[in-house]
Write a structure and sequence with these properties.
The chain is about 40% helix and about 20% strand.
């Protein structure tokens, strides 16, 4: 899952070398939280107009997680 998010994020930004994805341990509900970190000037590119790109990233990630019976959340920092 980490690799998927990293690939998507690197394709959207101007400074792909500054993109990183971290993962928290599962919480009490079994949900894993992934954090996408990008350069400050790329934040708008990863969020998109009215959050559409961020929503699409979350949708793709959730769809991939369902295939492997995981619960995930994606946050953009």
């Amino acid at each position: 899952m980490k690799e998927l998010l990293l690939t998507i994020a690197k394709g959207l930004v101007e400074e792909p070398e500054k993109v990183s994805v971290t993962q928290d341990d599962p919480n009490e509900e079994g949900t894993v939280v992934y954090h996408i970190h990008v350069a400050e000037n790329d934040m708008g590119r990863i969020i998109g107009k009215q959050g559409r790109i961020a929503k699409a990233i979350r949708t793709v990630a959730r769809s991939a997680a369902i295939r492997s019976n995981e619960k995930i959340m994606v946050e953009i920092d």
